[in-house]
Amino acid sequence: MAAPSNLTAVITALTVAICSVYVLASKRGKKDDLKSEKLTENKRKGNGVVGAIGNTPLIRINSLSDATGCEILAKAEFLNPGGSVKDRVAVKIIEEAFDSGKLSRGGVVTEGSAGSTAISLATVAPAYGCKCHVVIPDDAAIEKSQIIEALGATVERVRPVSITHKDHFVNIARRRAAEANKLALQYKNGKDASDANHTNGYLSENEKQNEVFTGEYKGGFFADQFENLANYRAHYEGTGPEIWEQTGGRLHAFVAAAGTGGTVAGVSRFLKEKDPEIKCFLVDPPGSGLYNKVKRGVMYTREEAEGKRLKNPFDTITEGIGINRLTENFKMAQLDGAFRGSDIQAVEMSRFLLKNDGLFIGSSSAMNCVGAVRVAQLLGPGHTIVTILCDSGMRHLSKFCNPEYLSQHGLTPSAKALEFLDCK
Fold this sequence. Notes:
alpha/beta, Rossmann fold, six-stranded mixed sheet, four-stranded parallel sheet, 15 helices, P-phosphate_BS, cysteine synthase, TrpB-like_PALP_sf
């Protein structure tokens, strides 16, 4: 009878030992989890303004969903620190430039922008120890320039011309980066800074902007948002995965307008890779050639051909969307179709959403919502459609949100509901 007693004792001892190990492991696991959470929290806090970019809410637009019978969801990108979807792009461009050695702390980031990307770069550049110089067309809403200057960046407003013209705002921004690099090289070689400034002729063009290129002379970097694929990657690696996760992969379509093309390209390609059945669409403003490219394979009509006009080729009041050339970013897009939107539709949509949903949005956001309704009409009730609320109306006060300006352009809103999109 001794054997069974001994066996019982052994089993009891083993059970106690296993339980002890489990308890200790559980306590250690909890400590490790707490430690991990603490590290994550510290990391999040340590990232400052950059860490607050992205992971924006995906909200249901109740009025449009109820009117169409679809679930129309929108990424609230206006909640980023810099107020727009372009915050993602600014961070990605700067971080890739640092990784490649093309930009270093103390350097100057230059960009040609109609406003939002410039604001985002001006917002995040100081977080990387950099300065910012932006070139903006002088027909952009004046508050955009005011915001950029308030953020500490230098603003150069120029007349709008064709991209083929040497003084297009993008081409000037590219030159400014080259000038900063030339100054840095001359300074490195021991040449007097003031001589260097005069040598490259910059002071003769705009002496007050000389401040941007003084100090440590760390050179310049042209962000090149239209052709730099960091733009596309920001959305392929960030916005697209967030939409997929927030919808649980249960969505039928995505629609957005395009300026540089980075958003529609990055999101469409990611979603298509996750589920080829998801339909992706472009909505395009007046004067842009992208609609024709998607629908007919032809970039633009002869009348719209870039390079044949010295004035702004876009017959639209929307800012930041629409283009008459094929960018490297847009080439990455995977689209199933396109819709044409009008200025009055965008204006009416912005007022409708303000009245019915409390959403105060900008012109590109409004155009995206026009596109969302068009997709809902195409697919029919019961589908989930996602779009982007690029920015708020705060940076569109002098034009898109200005009754007097709209009246001058024959765009005074008058719709009572969604009749401007053939919806009851």
